[in-house]
Design brief:
Elements (H helix, E strand, L loop, with lengths): L33 H9 L6 H14 L1 H4 L8 H4 L11 H5 L2 H10 L13 H19 L7 H9 L2
Helix pairs in contact: 2-7, 6-7
The site of heme C (HEC) has 19 residues, from helix 3 and helix 6.
Length: 157
Amino acid sequence: MSDQPKYKPYRDGKLFPDGITSQTSPQGTVARGEPAESVANEVRPAMTAALLGRGQERFDIYCAPCHGRDGTGNGLIPQRGYPRPSGYYDERLLKASDRYLMHVIAGGYGAMYPYASRISPADRWAIVAYIRALQLSHNIPVTEIDAAMRGQLEATP
Ligand code: HEC
């Protein structure tokens, strides 16, 4: 295959009138799947129990191995030497926008690799919703928890 006649990117070539093999796409070109993908990325779905459930399931599959099921960064992979992520509970990440979290999931961040090819935009939104729920659960004043739930929590050793 490497010996076949072919044009290499950025080399001279006679195929196009300007003599360059790498061409910019004609104006108005839309990549296959792009419009649907960008709409799904832009439009945040309504918060529902089903969305949270889906988010929890996806989070436990894709994120918990490093971030831990509780989002503190104590997953099994960092326990075996991978860089340990900080928890989701510092001021900066509490204040980060949903869009920012979408962006981190799709594009990765530092040592964390991108998940755009593995997690659809709809599932990214579900995971973001679940991260918000985790954050809420870590910072909620005890007075905001209803009596039955508080009793249950206080009974837990
Ligand atoms: C293989 C381990 C690994 C997995 C799996 C992983 N992350 Fe991370 N994540 C990291 C590490 C390590 C960092 C810190 C990176 C750094 O500071 O260089 C990080 C950072 C982050 C941050 C913080 C970004 C910031 O601004 O500080 C968010 C949010 C995040 N991850 C979300 C996710 C979500 C959501 C998933 C699942 C879709 C996920 N991560 C899966 C390792 C992982």
